[in-house]
Amino acid sequence: ELLGVERAALVLPETEDGRLAFVVPWEGRAVVGTTDSPYEGPLESPGVEEAEVEYLLRHVRRFLDVEVQPDDVLAAYAGLRPLVSGSGRSADLSRRHAVVLHEPGFVSVIGGKLTTYRRMAQDAVDVIARHEAREPDGLRIGPSRTHRLALVGAEHQERWPALVRQALKAGLAAAAAGRLVQTYGAEAGRLLDLTRARPELGRPLAPGLPHLAAEVVFACETSMPVRLEDLMDRRLRIGLVAPAAAAAAATEAARLMGERLGWSGPHREEELQRYLGGLGRWREGIQPGCVEGTS
Description:
Helix content is 41%, strand content 8%.
């Protein structure tokens, strides 16, 4: 509401250093990004730099003519982007990946980014198909078919309205039912199966939060989270879209995750305290130096 974006993503056409920036509506929030700065710190904990936050907000104020300040930011995240090496500014280096065949059976994918993972995999398969004549059983390796295959959950979209009706029948509020299908697509049926088997999984993780307890169990069964942080921020994304509710949700999420993964009581408590201790750290102790491709 503050930025005036609902369904349309915006491109901020030229930043002061000749780049593009974006404002993208996502799960009831506006995601603003990105920055691009060299980083030389620990690989396991890239941080958000105060100057980068101000850089993005400054361009939002300029192009959208709104008064947005750091206190309006709900959450921030940073990540490292590997680039194919070259000279000059990192912002000028190609964002494209490279697929290199070193010798038969040894292929490297260099550079790239998470959002193009499928094209990276396609190119790797195609390189193998061109250079490996036959597999040991004599079957020929064909080119990648990934561009003709739906993502998990994107299949059978004609059935999605029926899934919404099933969710409503199971007692979910209209907004929660719509969000479940919009988020998981055809996989929403599997979450509803969990709530039928265990009705308590149909409750929200925390008051006022749309995320269901069943989503914790489903994530543990399908996407291999290892830490509570993996689940909260990288699977359910609660820490990014609803940070004020993350602390309340984390206790129940840790209990369910520990139950599913066989954590001991001390292990569960350690994970919970580690996650709670990191909430809001980006705001309290913004790190010097930053990262390739921060948002």
